[in-house]
Amino acid sequence: MKHAATAILLLLFSPTALLAQSQKTLLLGLASISGGIETLYVTKKIGAFKRNGLDVDFLLLQGGSQALQVLLSAEIKLISGGGGAAAQRARFKGAGNVIVATYTPTMPYSLFVNRKIQDAKQLKGAKLAISRFGSSSDFSARYMVSRLGFDPSKDVTIMQVGNQRERMSALLSGAVDGSVIDVPNTQIARQQGFVELADSSKLGLAYPHNNIATTERFIRDEPQTVFNFLRAFVEGIAYYRTHKAESVQMIKEFLRVSDSAIAEEAYDYYSRITPMKPYPTGDGVRTVLEEIAPTEPAIRNAKIEHFIDASFMTKLDQSGFIDGLYKKR
Hints:
By secondary structure, this protein is α/β, with parallel strands linked by helices.
């Protein structure tokens, strides 16, 4: 566990001093703290994990690559992450990681531009800010530009600027004409008077942005633990989707923001796109494989079923448990 200790940046919740014998202690690795992931926080806060025999703590890791690393090393059994190109490339090459649920089935990014650009026709020639080439912000920027009718490699200039704060500063200073903004920072962009030209989720982008991933070995060794985790999680999602006021307050706690407008922006967006039944998305994985294919041509022949395990969600769905959660509301 020495390696895990160095990998973990922040323990979000202290372990309880005494655990009930009937409860299994489980660590969930978080690739990041961002919008959408608060559904896991809600699940914990309402006691759904404990009702399913689990004492779950969250561990914040240094992004998706590290989350995948500790998962494959078996230091953590479940992660929130594991949907991007690195994870799917590893899986294709024989790693044991597999997605068992997708709860953000798109990229939560919008394209905001300065006031000089009032509609998509004026986008040609614009300078657009992303974090870095090959990142999710880069992918979503190119996707949105393409769907708006332009060639992202010819009609616009895509610039590596940095994180969300740096991209917003570049937009404010006029160094760029537009930027990819994630939710809930979209609320800040609106407050600054910037124009939203596109929302990737509304353009139909299917992408496994936030997932629950584990390994084939853990599924084989402890299928009931995986099932119990997902059973609790769909209960948390149901609460989140049907209790706005309470969920907004928990978003403020989780994201550590005091502005209710920002928390409501996150809630309104994620409650819309978070599915009642978070099946691992085959369409989203296909998008990732197409992203990888130019440098890994053989992946075009891979079967989507190799990258996902929908059996747990299918069992929960067919049992009527998920539908029952909403009939009670």
